[in-house]
Amino acid sequence: MDEILKAVVYGIIQGLTEFIPVSSTAHLRVIPALLGWNDVGAAYTAVIQIGTLIATLIYFKKDISSLIKGFLEALKNRDFLTNNNSRLFILIIAGTIPIGICGLLFKRFIEGGARGLYVISAALILLAIVLFIAEKFGKKEKDFSHLTVKDGLIIGLAQALALIPGSSRSGVTITAGLFRNLKRDVAARYSFLLSIPAIGLSGLYELYKERDVLLNESFASLIVATVVSGIVGYLSISFLINYLKTKTNFVFIIYRIILGVIILILLFTGVLQNMQ
Fold first, then answer.
1. Domain tally for the chain?
2. If you ran DSSP here, which 8-state letter would residue 270 be given?
3. In the prediction, which pLDDT does 215 show?
4. What is the rounded CA–CA span in Å between residue 213 and residue 57?
């Protein structure tokens, strides 16, 4: 029963923080540590992200259908970039390549030393500063129809920074989108669509690689955490897109800095240990 309760907590944390730019990894490391629980590890975290992936697929089912139809039409006409949906489809696929390559190259570091709380706290604070700059200087005037190949590739490259725990995948992609002058809610929508192949490939890879451990020792926990993360994640997507239509990211910027500072204080006072 304790494992199921933990799974529910993990699922809520994952669902709440995957799409809001505050770093799901940071919260999945810090909150369990404060509760005296061991780090579930990068593999477990990657697999329960499948729940938030399913939430994304459901929430954006019409957008995804349009993207696929646009790409298939472009195949017939051999005109991939003029059609907005086809261009977005290609940019999402291309934007996944950097995070895939970097994930494989730096896998050992990402799953090991990078999960240290000093790295996480630093990433929380530094990206908050960069997001603040993007909020101040981004023109926030472009929608999907104005998204260029250069915009998509830059945002895709930025997504690779999400491999640094504490940075936040949605945080770095929304920040890059703002620097490319996308409207806040457009940047968020593109960030979520861009997450689909990245989260899906990562989750399926970890599920296959760690299948003996995850499917035997943690199967029930994994299912519960994944389902809960999907339900909460769906609500989080809806909240953030509607929120950013009229409001800024400043509340998340402040939260990130406060959380990063709190983690450092807890580390310096010995309440938390860097690796647990």
1. 1
2. T
3. 65
4. 27
Q: Which of 42, 17, 49, 68 is nearest to 209 (CA)?
A: 42
192 and 170 Cβ atoms separated by less than 8 Å:
yes
For residue 273, being part of any structural domain is answered with no
* Cα 93 from Cα 181, distance rounded (Å): 21
**Cβ neighbours of 216 (radius 10 Å):** 8
Residue 276 domain flag: no
Alpha-carbon torsion 52, 58, 64, 69, what sign? positive
Split at pLDDT 50, 70, 90, the class of 221 is confident
34-81 tens-digit pLDDT: 888 877 777 778 888 889 999 999 999 999 999 999 999 988 888 888
Domain that holds residue 18: 2-268
8 Å CB contact between 89 and 102:
no
Rounded to 5 degrees, what are φ and ψ at 266? -65, -35
φ, ψ at 197 (rounded to 5°): -70, -35
Buried b (16+ CB within 10 A) or exposed e, 164-182: bbbbbbbbbbbbbbbbbbb
Q: Is residue 230 part of a domain?
A: yes
Residue 276 pLDDT exceeds 60? no
Domain assignment present for residue 34? The answer is yes
Structure tokens at 255: 């939260």
205's tokens = 């890879």
